[in-house]
Structures are given as structure tokens and as C-alpha cells.
């Protein structure tokens, strides 16, 4: 039995704590400011299957994007 397991050469270093807990867009390109800007998340809609957030430019308040945040419950398909 081989107790050492193979380590791939492209082993990724662990991300520093608090840097990338989960992928979250905190900077987006604002077409009005013509640069990457810090964004503010705003709850736009609460839907039965999740919540819709809107990203607003932190500088001018322009809407730069949106995302759907699904509810915590696991996705189940009703047949
Ligand atoms: Zn802007």
C-alpha cells in the first residue's frame, strides 16, 4: 500500500481568509464611470424561488448588474 498520495504540480494555494469566501461580484464595470467600481448590493425582488439583487455603482448609483440568489433549500424538480 502506498501511503503517500500524488500531489499535482498545479496545487492551488489556499486563498487568504476573507478574500474569496464565495464568488461575489464586488467590483463591476460601470458604463457611466467607464471604470471598475465597487458596487452596492440592493435587494430588488423577493421571489418564491429566491431573491433578486441589483448591483449599483458605488460612485454614481448606476445599475451595473443583477443576480438571482436562490433560496437555501435544495433545488428540487417537481415531476
Ligand atoms: Zn458609476
List the helices and strands and how they pair.
Layout: E1 27-30, E2 35-47, E3 50-57, E4 63-70
Antiparallel strand pairs: 1-2, 2-3, 3-4
Bound molecules: zinc ion.
Which whole number gives the mean pLDDT? Answer: 78
Give the helix tally: 0
Percent of residues in helices comes to under 10%
Radius of gyration: 19 Å
Note the beta-strand portion.
35-45%
Record field, number of beta strands: 4
Give the spatial strand order of the biggest sheet. 1-2-3-4
Class by alpha and beta content:
mainly beta
The distinct ligands, each listed once, are: zinc ion
Low-confidence segments, ≥5 residues, pLDDT <50?
none
Give the CA-CA distance, first to last residue.
Answer: 47 Å
Order of helices and strands: EEEE
How would you sum up the major sheet? 4 strands, antiparallel
Brief descriptors of the model:
0% helix, flat, binds zinc ion, 79 residues, mainly beta
Outline of the structure:
The protein has 79 residues and is mainly β. The chain is built from no helices and four strands. The site of zinc ion has 8 residues, from loops.
Write structural notes for this entry.
There is one protein chain. The chain has strands at 27-30, 35-47, 50-57, 63-70. Helices cover 0% and strands 42% of the residues. The protein has a 4-stranded antiparallel sheet with strand order 1-2-3-4, with no helix packed on it. It contains no helices and 4 strands. The model has no long low-confidence stretch (mean pLDDT 78). With 79 residues, it is mostly beta strands. It has a domain at 27-68. It binds zinc ion (ZN). Zinc ion binds next to loops.
Amino acid at each position: 500500500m502506498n501511503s503517500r498520495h500524488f500531489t499535482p504540480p498545479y496545487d492551488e494555494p489556499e486563498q487568504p481568509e476573507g478574500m474569496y469566501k464565495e464568488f461575489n461580484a464586488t467590483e463591476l464595470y460601470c458604463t457611466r464611470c467607464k471604470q471598475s467600481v465597487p458596487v452596492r448590493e440592493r435587494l430588488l425582488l423577493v421571489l418564491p424561488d429566491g431573491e433578486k439583487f441589483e448591483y449599483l455603482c458605488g460612485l454614481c448609483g448606476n445599475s451595473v448588474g443583477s443576480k438571482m440568489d436562490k433560496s437555501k433549500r435544495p433545488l428540487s424538480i417537481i415531476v
